[in-house]
Amino acid sequence: MLRAHMSVTTIQQLTEMMVIPCFSLHRKLARLHRAVGAVRWRSSYRPAPLLTAAPARALIDEQISIKGRFLPPRCPVTVCAQMHSEDDDLWEAFAHYNTNADGTVNLTKDHSVGGSYLGCEPMGLFWGLQPAPGAREGLRLRKKNVEIPYVVHMSLLEGHVSPSEGQSTELAAVTTERWYMAPGVKRIKIRQNGIVGTLFLPPGPGPFPAMLDLWGMGGALVEYRSALFASRGYASLSIAYIGHKELPGPQNRINVGASYFNSAFNLLRDHRQVCADRVGIIGLSFGVYLTLRIATETGAKPSCLICINGPIGSAIRLSDADGRTEDFEGQQKYWTYNDQGHVSFRDISLPANLPPESKVKLENLACPLMYIVGEDDLSASSIENANLIEETLRAADKSQLFTRLSYPGAGHLIEPPYSPNSRMSLWSVKPKKLITLWGGHLAPHAAAQEDAWKKILDFMENNLRR
């Protein structure tokens, strides 16, 4: 038995001789140190465990460095990230690591051996976020208020554990903020000429190159990609065209025509802080059809187009030649369901199923087009549409205008990097509850988003700045 009169040196020597690398050993030794109360200890204590995330405030597309220090060597630890959405749902991710010989863990170079992801994934705790156990069904993480950040609480836990088990010991913690809007970016509400949108301007007087930003049939006014474009030096106008209370109803159909989109493009082009001859358009899902239609049929002259997982024609039957549509539910004959009753809209947008009168005149394309394909897309027939675009442009002797990016394992919702993918989410509650399938597996989808975003910015740089 160790006695209280043993010297500090003796206890330290015993500590060095012990080779069992675990937290229980260090707890026992700590109790032993406290028991020798009569001894005045020299400055040989190990500092308390520390978790850092740098920078603590960053844009959503920026990597941060996450490190744990002052830990026992060769010990199991868990690094956990938790955050609440703006609807107050808890999202979390975690990863298991083993500390290095110097008592550190560095997510930039160390490998996760379990949890939400495996391997060296510096940003895995962000793209790996998923609804916590017991959460509502069908959640999808989408930023609503871009003027406030996501606040992510990161913690360092003892052992290889799952945060939901609730039995873990927190060793250290840190909070980080993830922003879509950089300091100095201006957000301007647009309600002009019937347009419902939001304009984002970078800091400074301009003039700036610009992007018109179009989303899909999920509706509402989605601002976060435009905010991020402005943070990267591009003016960007995001517009609503369906499912918004300030647009003509009913909300389950498109009740604005070609003039609405042409007016939006012209409003952006003619803004005093925008370079009139350097305006591009980006569209995702149904926004791809709108992007192609604006570029080929309205008289607008965009400098470039970026299309992500969408069709060359309207996936909804048109009610007039100006582009207004019937109800989305009218296309149910092409809906398919999996064994859980979740719906896929993929077959609606097969080129053979698109209304012939809605297909855009691709041969009229006069600017560079980048088309991004998620090969596990369960919501749109992206591969087939990309093939048709490529074939049509080749036949028109315009192959030089076409760039194709294709990502195995990526789903429909290819968004800015490090944001988590939802393989499925709630589509509607009325007239009945529907969960729709988007596709995509976490790790390959995250890799696709990171690579695609870099190439999107490069494409914009080459076509809007040079």
From TrEMBL:
UniProt-listed GO biological process terms: acyl-CoA metabolic process; fatty acid metabolic process
Domain BAAT/Acyl-CoA thioester hydrolase C-terminal: 259-464
List of catalytic residues: S285 (charge relay system), D377 (charge relay system), H412 (charge relay system)
Domain (Acyl-CoA thioester hydrolase/bile acid-CoA amino acid N-acetyltransferase): residue spans on this chain: 61-192
Molecular function in Gene Ontology: fatty acyl-CoA hydrolase activity
Matching Pfam families: BAAT_C, Bile_Hydr_Trans
Family: Belongs to the C/M/P thioester hydrolase family.
Name by which UniProt lists this protein: Bile acid-CoA:amino acid N-acyltransferase-like
